């Protein structure tokens, strides 16, 4: 059973995470994202998209897959659950 203090803490943490995701997406669509590929092993790459408010990562098996991931991010109309038109009006 969850205590009142635990529930209050959980809700505060969930709210903070939601605000971070919102700000991260807003930064992304406002052109503040940078991208990075780090080779972890011969057949493993970690791909990053970073903004002032967060970082998203994924993995790829080849450099070509990593580069394709970045291109997909760059052309995305939805990021971290938020649609582009939520922040940028056409």
List keywords for this structure.
alpha+beta, flat
Can you tell me about this structure?
The chain is an alpha+beta fold. The protein contains two helices and five strands; from the N terminus they run H-E-E-E-H-E-E. It has one domain (4-85). Strand 1 (34-41) and strand 2 form a beta hairpin. It is flat, with a radius of gyration of 16 Å. The chain starts with a helix and ends in a 7-residue tail after the last strand.
Task: Give the helix/strand layout.
Blueprint: H1 4-29, E1 34-41, E2 44-51, E3 54-60, H2 63-74, E4 78-79, E5 82-83
Antiparallel strand pairs: 1-2, 2-3, 4-5
In a nutshell, what does this entry contain?
With 90 residues, the chain is α+β, with helices and mostly antiparallel strands. The protein has two helices and five strands, in the order αβββαββ.
Unreliable runs, pLDDT <50, ≥5 residues?
none
Ends distance = 48 Å
Q: If you compute it from the alpha carbons, what radius of gyration comes out, rounded to the nearest whole angstrom?
A: 16 Å
What is the ordering of alpha helices and beta strands? HEEEHEE
Q: What characterizes the major β-sheet?
A: 3 strands, antiparallel
């Amino acid at each position: 059973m969850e205590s009142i203090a635990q529930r209050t803490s959980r809700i505060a943490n969930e709210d903070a995470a939601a605000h971070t995701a919102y700000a991260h997406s807003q930064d992304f669509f406002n052109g503040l994202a940078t991208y990075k590929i780090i080779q972890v092993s011969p057949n493993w790459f970690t791909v990053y998209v970073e903004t002032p408010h967060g970082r998203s990562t994924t993995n790829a098996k080849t450099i070509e897959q990593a580069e394709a991931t970045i291109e997909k991010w760059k052309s995305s109309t939805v990021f971290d659950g938020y649609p582009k038109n939520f922040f940028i009006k056409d």
